Amino acid sequence: MQHVKVPQDRIGVLIGEGGSTLREIESRAEVRLDVDSENGSVAIDSVGDPVLGMVAPDVVRAVGRGFAPEDAMALLDDDMMMFELIDIDRHTRNKNDMRRQKGRLIGENGRTRELMEELTGAEVVIYGSTLGIIGKPEEVEAVRRAVEMILDGAPHGAVYSFLERKHNELTQGFNVRQND
């Protein structure tokens, strides 16, 4: 049995309308979830495939960190998918710095976060003091590197160039357009 802490304002999302999301996670991950709405603690008990059961805490953690349940459940669909959390707080000195860094990661009108998703294929969510990534290992690695560059103060232009290079590497050999 494992325990995952979910922020109070995300418990409703985890449970879903009439418990639908909770039941879907339970059936797809072959686990039993016991949610304590008071303190946000979720007990996860594997009742089926142990491999799926090992992924369930990440699914619950991802929903708790701001991902839509469908995006979090992608972790169950493909064993190459992974979930990673980056603690923005570790890279900041105070509340103002945290606000500034989050602003840089999100970008104007959400453009930086959007580009990270578009150019890597990963899902990226900024919630509280964390940035969450769901994707294949090389996608997660590219986003992690871009986030580190931004947190280290790199200009956005340099980060965008890096992401475009990564995008070209990631899509090399997978060009869908046929040259006739």
From TrEMBL:
Listed CDD domains: KH-I_Dim2p_like_rpt1, KH-I_Dim2p_like_rpt2
Quote the PROSITE patterns the UniProt record gives.
KH_TYPE_1 (PS50084)
Is the RNA-binding keyword given for this protein?
Answer: yes
- Which Pfam families does the protein's record reference? KH_1, KH_PNO1_2nd
Specify the protein name: RNA-processing protein
Q: Where is the K Homology domain?
A: 1-81, 82-152
Q: List keywords of the entry alphabetically.
A: RNA-binding
Which SMART domains does the entry link to?
Answer: KH
GO MF annotation, one: RNA binding
Q: Does the keyword Repeat apply?
A: no
